[in-house]
Amino acid sequence: MEPITHPTHLKIQDAYGRIARIGGCCGPQSGCCGGGRAGEVAQGVGYSDTELATLPEGANLGLSCGNPTALAELKPGETVLDLGSGAGLDVFLAAQRVGAEGKVIGVDMTPEMVAKARRNATEFRRRTGLDNVVFHQGQIEAIPLPDASVDVVLSNCVLNLSPDQATVWKEIARVLKPGGRVSISDMVLLKPLPEALRQSVEALVGCIAGAALVDDLRDMVQASGLVDLTLTSKGEAVEAMLLADDPMTDHLLGLLPEGTLPSEYITSLIIAARKPA
Ligand SMILES: C[S@@+](CC[C@H](N)C(=O)[O-])C[C@H]1O[C@@H](n2cnc3c(N)ncnc32)[C@H](O)[C@@H]1O
After folding, report:
1. Where are the domains of the chain?
2. How would residue 244 be classed by pLDDT, with cut points 50, 70 and 90?
3. pTM, entire model
4. Mutate which of 5, 135, 158 to test ligand 1's pocket (most atoms within 8 Å of Cβ)?
């Protein structure tokens, strides 16, 4: 992998390296998407208890903003890529759906996350008997995979963390096979954020400050060559991520103009699209 030099990448890698080391989001010292209490966040953004029970311990760090795997209609034998795979949550869920004939590849730029995901993979193999997951360290702006090599691209609360989302969308289109599909969960802006929030490192790491405006998202997807874009609002996920009694939530809400709600600015979307056959 190319050395990380972009200031945004360095901030994100530093923050998520710390989160991997302490084992999840636990308030202001971690400062991440979800803010705390991993199980509660995961249920609130759409994961069922049954799904969560199949995961190795520590695969869910409470960093998600939707459940893109549930909506991806994965089939046995498919090759799936998860961008910004963290500790492996969606990789392990997808791996059970594509089965022994399929394969799921996680890509993440933070070494501590990749190391944690690989440790979790050992436990996943032991529990399920499946040997169909692999984790690569890499940047989603330069996906370390060949052209036209995957059937489905998943991602969960990651694209907003990239300083170059237009390039990420082009990379997604490059690695998809013709006819391949996208199921991505991400935070998206309904209107521009107040400057104080836009400049906040905590809001960047917390999946807010880097979110794209919905119209810019549409333009980036169209420019990538992907078609049949659908955006499904999962606004309730925002409430689940902004937990009551959480110091990080209080800090971020404090940067909004008095009397305004986060839901006026930001929502969680499931972004679906496909590469023409
Ligand atoms: C909010 S967490 C989501 C993790 C996982 N998708 C989940 O739902 O549990 C964001 C993850 O994306 C990774 N990440 C952020 N920006 C990235 C980039 N430009 N390239 C690769 N990984 C990135 C971080 O290291 C972190 O593990």
Report:
1. 7-274
2. low
3. 0.94
4. 158
pLDDT at 241: 79
Ranges of H-type helices in the chain: 7-22, 38-45, 49-53, 89-98, 111-128, 165-175, 195-198, 201-205, 214-224, 236-241, 247-254
Average pLDDT value for the chain: 91
CB 32 within 8 A of CB 206: yes
pLDDT band at 30 (very low <50, low <70, confident <90, very high): very low
Distance (Å, whole) CA 269 – CA 258: 25
The CATH number corresponding to 7-274 among 3.40.50.300, 2.40.30.30, 3.40.50.150, 3.40.50.620 equals: 3.40.50.150
211: DSSP letter:
P
User: What is the pLDDT at residue 35?
Assistant: 44
The closest of 168, 201, 190, 200 to 267, measured between CA atoms, is 190
Complete DSSP assignment for 13-70: HHHHHHHHHHTS-BSTTT--TT-B-HHHHHHHHT--HHHHHTSPTTS--S--SS-TTT
For 244-262, give one letter per residue: b (16+ CB within 10 A) or e: eebebbebbeebbeeeeeb
Distance, CA of 269 to CA of 261 (rounded, Å): 18
CA of 13 to the centre of ligand 1 (A): 9
Residue indicated by tokens 């400049």: 199
CA of 155 to the centre of ligand 1 (A): 9
CA–CA separation, 191 and 16 (whole Å): 27
146: helix, strand or coil: coil
Which range (84-93, 98-107, 127-136, 203-212) has the least confidence?
203-212
The verdict on the CB of residue 165 being under 6 Å from ligand 1 is no
